[in-house]
């Protein structure tokens, strides 16, 4: 059994940055990541793409990841790619399975840097082949470099939808139309927030505005104020029906629709450990309860990056560093680089988060995301519709009971796709606030596990 | 539903052939089974155990499990988390998984 000082789950911006600080200071660090190469979702495939026309088209922020990935590769941390963490015990015993088989790691501290996932936003027909997330399409852009084979329809709200459209257009793809599901924000509030953000981050703001302008000019159609979507077809997407805030209903023909309604902290591992979470109304998401170092309610676990609350890649880098500094402090070490100080990291983090209140407000998801109509499948795995769940919601039923009654959240995705919607349905039915509703309890194994992987533990225990 | 961009990557020496339900499909080295599947005509990955409806990769990042496919030597796995290799045999998962030897 390996006994490192620190185990880091996730090799994205936060995990890598923390690993670099910790390993250079002399800690024994193990980093486990599900992808075959480091970078997380944001810098996925950066080593292969950097210096190519694709890398250039993906943009400056994407290419900026190469330096971190290179430093990470050389920092001395043990890196296990293509490896899944399927259980972290409260004593920190961690079970992982990868190309090297199943292993147990017993670190002194754990840093969870599992990043974000896209917000599941159910609508009628969203399970049809041909409906995918924008994030999924962006992953395809990075590796293997594929684009929709026909002009594509995008429906969504959030910076990622705009960024993807921008990247796609730069790579020669065509946006047939953009159904903007962003609810309009009162102009005065927008201007106030934008003004405040512009004082410190005008460049970012200008970039966002230019993406919007590009979309406006280059997309075949741009439809604002879309409040409801329906994917049409039986075995495959054939069209989309949408409704605008003004009540106009229209239908378009398409075999591919990309959807996006923002991102959420990926809290599966965190929640399996019973770490305390809270409802963040600004981001309309649950996030872990953390102190300024990323320490959570479990004394030996820290959380950094988007898993700590959505902040983007740059904030993730600095949160990762801050958590690493705290870890060094706790284990009696100091950072190897003199400039790696708490003050510097905090200042950089604050700067990286300047635009966040503006983004959270302007891209707040529309109400319909939390209130799917009766006929909409909420639990993709068990094919349960809102109607089925609401029928089981008599009396005061929590998420876990609802799961037992209906099987919602029991399928292979383990509630990753329906958990938030189920919590929202319960809150609505009982007239409670999201902060008063707990999402499903999460139990290991956190990732699918074969019996032979489990049996591999026998060899592991013999060898130790 | 997708096509490869013709940039500096699409060279023949960087491809392998895999098999999806017995049909040969050309894949780029380093890509996943799911990204390969999304370039074939029938780009769905499985039918559901409950209603038998078709599903296709949805998230590409391992959180929806709609890309579950039977991969030779590995059993039922997320195709979006499985890298291609030459000769890899993949099957669409039809309905519920049958009990049997897989790995
Ligand atoms: S496509 Fe979602 S898990 Fe593979």
UniProtKB/TrEMBL annotation, chain A:
<feature type="domain" description="FAD/NAD(P)-binding">
    <location>
        <begin position="5"/>
        <end position="320"/>
    </location>
</feature>
<feature type="domain" description="SoxA A3">
    <location>
        <begin position="400"/>
        <end position="455"/>
    </location>
</feature>
<dbReference type="Pfam" id="PF07992">
    <property type="entry name" value="Pyr_redox_2"/>
</dbReference>
<dbReference type="InterPro" id="IPR036188">
    <property type="entry name" value="FAD/NAD-bd_sf"/>
</dbReference>
<dbReference type="InterPro" id="IPR017224">
    <property type="entry name" value="Opine_Oxase_asu/HCN_bsu"/>
</dbReference>
<keyword id="KW-0560">Oxidoreductase</keyword>
<dbReference type="Pfam" id="PF17806">
    <property type="entry name" value="SO_alpha_A3"/>
</dbReference>
<dbReference type="InterPro" id="IPR023753">
    <property type="entry name" value="FAD/NAD-binding_dom"/>
</dbReference>
<dbReference type="GO" id="GO:0016491">
    <property type="term" value="F:oxidoreductase activity"/>
</dbReference>
<dbReference type="InterPro" id="IPR041854">
    <property type="entry name" value="BFD-like_2Fe2S-bd_dom_sf"/>
</dbReference>
<dbReference type="InterPro" id="IPR041117">
    <property type="entry name" value="SoxA_A3"/>
</dbReference>
<dbReference type="InterPro" id="IPR051691">
    <property type="entry name" value="Metab_Enz_Cyan_OpOx_G3PDH"/>
</dbReference>
<protein>
    <submittedName>
        <fullName>D-nopaline dehydrogenase</fullName>
    </submittedName>
</protein>
Automatic annotation (TrEMBL), chain B:
<protein>
    <submittedName>
        <fullName>Sarcosine oxidase</fullName>
    </submittedName>
</protein>
<dbReference type="Pfam" id="PF13510">
    <property type="entry name" value="Fer2_4"/>
</dbReference>
<dbReference type="InterPro" id="IPR036010">
    <property type="entry name" value="2Fe-2S_ferredoxin-like_sf"/>
</dbReference>
<dbReference type="InterPro" id="IPR042204">
    <property type="entry name" value="2Fe-2S-bd_N"/>
</dbReference>
<dbReference type="GO" id="GO:0016491">
    <property type="term" value="F:oxidoreductase activity"/>
</dbReference>
<dbReference type="GO" id="GO:0051536">
    <property type="term" value="F:iron-sulfur cluster binding"/>
</dbReference>
<keyword id="KW-0560">Oxidoreductase</keyword>
């Amino acid at each position: 059994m390996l006994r490192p000082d620190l185990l880091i789950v996730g090799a994205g911006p936060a995990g890598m940055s923390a690993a670099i600080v910790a390993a250079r200071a002399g800690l024994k660090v193990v980093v486990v990541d599900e992808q075959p190469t480091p970078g997380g979702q944001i810098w996925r495939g950066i080593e292969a793409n950097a210096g190519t026309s694709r890398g250039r088209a993906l943009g400056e922020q994407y290419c900026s990841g190469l330096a971190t990935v290179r430093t990470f590769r050389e920092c001395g941390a043990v890196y296990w790619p293509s490896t899944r963490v399927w259980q972290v015990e409260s004593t920190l015993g961690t079970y992982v399975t990868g190309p090297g088989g199943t292993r147990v790691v017993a670190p002194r501290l754990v840093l969870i840097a599992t990043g974000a996932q896209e917000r599941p936003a159910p609508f009628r027909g969203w399970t049809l082949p041909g409906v995918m997330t924008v994030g999924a399409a962006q992953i395809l852009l990075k590796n293997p470099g594929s684009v929709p084979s026909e002009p594509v329809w995008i429906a969504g709200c959030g910076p990622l939808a705009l960024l993807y459209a921008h990247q796609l257009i730069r790579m020669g793809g065509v946006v047939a139309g953009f159904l903007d599901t962003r609810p309009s924000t009162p102009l005065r509030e927008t201007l106030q927030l934008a003004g405040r953000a512009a004082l410190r981050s005008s460049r970012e703001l200008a970039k966002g505005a230019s993406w919007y302008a590009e979309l406006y000019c280059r997309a075949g159609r741009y439809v604002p104020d879309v409040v409801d979507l329906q994917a049409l077809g039986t075995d495959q997407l054939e069209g989309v029906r949408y409704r605008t805030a003004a009540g106009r209903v229209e239908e378009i023909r398409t075999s591919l629709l990309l959807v996006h309604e923002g991102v959420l902290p990926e809290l599966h591992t965190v929640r399996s450990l019973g770490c305390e979470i809270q409802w963040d109304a600004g981001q309309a998401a649950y996030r872990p309860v953390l102190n300024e170092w990323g320490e959570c309610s479990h004394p030996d676990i820290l959380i950094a990056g988007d898993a700590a609350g959505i902040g983007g890649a740059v904030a993730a880098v600095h949160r990762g560093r801050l958590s690493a500094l705290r870890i060094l402090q706790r284990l009696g070490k100091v950072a190897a680089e003199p400039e790696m100080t708490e003050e510097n990291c905090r200042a950089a983090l604050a700067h990286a988060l300047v635009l966040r209140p503006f983004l959270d407000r302007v891209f707040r998801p529309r109400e319909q995301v939390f209130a799917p109509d009766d006929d909409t499948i909420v639990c993709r795995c068990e094919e349960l519709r809102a109607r089925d769940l609401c029928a089981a919601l008599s009396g005061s039923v929590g998420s876990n009971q609802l799961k037992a009654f209906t099987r919602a959240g029991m399928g292979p995705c383990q509630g990753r796709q329906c958990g938030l919607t189920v919590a929202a349905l319960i809150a609505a039915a009982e007239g409670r606030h999201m902060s008063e509703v707990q999402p499903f309890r999460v139990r290991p194994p956190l990732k699918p596990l074969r019996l032979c992987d489990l049996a591999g533990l026998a060899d592991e225990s013999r060898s130790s | 539903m997708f096509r490869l961009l013709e940039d500096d990557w699409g060279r023949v020496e960087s491809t392998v052939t895999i098999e999806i339900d017995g049909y040969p499909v050309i894949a780029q080295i380093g890509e996943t089974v799911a990204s390969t599947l999304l370039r074939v005509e029938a780009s769905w990955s499985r039918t559901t155990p409950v209603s038998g409806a078709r599903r296709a990769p949805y998230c590409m990042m391992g959180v929806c499990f709609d890309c579950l496919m039977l991969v030779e030597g590995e059993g039922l796995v997320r195709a979006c988390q499985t890298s291609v290799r030459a000769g890899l045999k993949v099957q669409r998962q039809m309905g519920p998984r049958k009990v049997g030897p897989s790995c």
